[in-house]
Amino acid sequence: QGATPNTSLIIPYGSFDLFTFTGGSMGAGARDLHILGNNQTGGTCITVSNADRTGFENLIITNPYNAFNIFKANVCSISHCWVNAVKGEYGIKYWGYNSMNSDVLDLDNIQLSGRDGDSQSTGILIDGSIGTVDIRHVACVAFGRGLWMKKTVAGAAPPMFLQAYDFQVDYSYHENIRIDDGEEIFFTDLYAHGA
Fold first, then answer.
1. Of 17-21, 57-61, 83-87, 96-100, where does mean pLDDT reach its minimum?
2. Cα(176)–Cα(70) distance, rounded to whole angstroms?
3. N or C, which terminus of the chain has less Cβ within 10 Å?
């Protein structure tokens, strides 16, 4: 935990995962920090793997390679965060397969943006055996795809139950929203522009 994002600054250099929350990290998380990824050449700022009940709040993440990678994680909350100018594949990736599924991702009051001219990135990427993604007051701007829901992980079940309320997707280079696989998908107050 930092003091505020304005005063608590972390600057990663190179290609690695900055924070990793694994098996024993139940109830862990991060808040009130600014991660400045100008010199991050690979990896992810925050990785959650096989850790339950994690929370991330009031973070500013600028110029990251990837921001959040969440795998086999149950009850993960990301709120009041700003992720700006993602250089890699995704802003938030939520995924699982077989017995390594993920369940309950809560996204609330988040601003995500890609980099001008980068058509390969995805704002929110949902892949494979996951359940219950709740999106509220979230914006994805200038990604190749704003939201992509699919099942490409071998042995995975389709993603289940996505509910998005007040979701904005702006200036995507390919598609604002792409649903390749999944069940029980609901949008309310959706704004999509520019693809």
1. 96-100
2. 22
3. N
DSSP letter, residue 3: S
Q: Amino acid identity of 35?
A: I
Output the furthest CA–CA distance in the chain (Å, rounded). 45
pLDDT at 48 over 90: yes
Residue 56 CA to residue 53 CA, distance in Å, equals: 10
Q: CB under 8 Å to 132, separation ≥6 — which residues?
A: 103, 104, 105, 160, 161
CB 118, CB 91: distance < 8 Å: no
Each residue's pLDDT tens digit, 159-174 = 999 999 999 999 999 8
A 10 A CB-CB count for 100 gives 17
- E strands within the chain? 9-10, 13-15, 19-21, 29-36, 39-42, 44-49, 54-62, 66-71, 74-84, 90-96, 102-113, 122-128, 130-141, 145-150, 160-170, 175-179, 183-193
Q: What is the mean pLDDT of residues 162-191?
A: 94
Contact 158, 190 (CB under 8 A): no
CB 133 within 8 A of CB 155: no
Q: What is the pTM of this model?
A: 0.94
Burial class of 176 by CB neighbour count within 10 A (0 to 12, 13 to 18, 19+):
buried
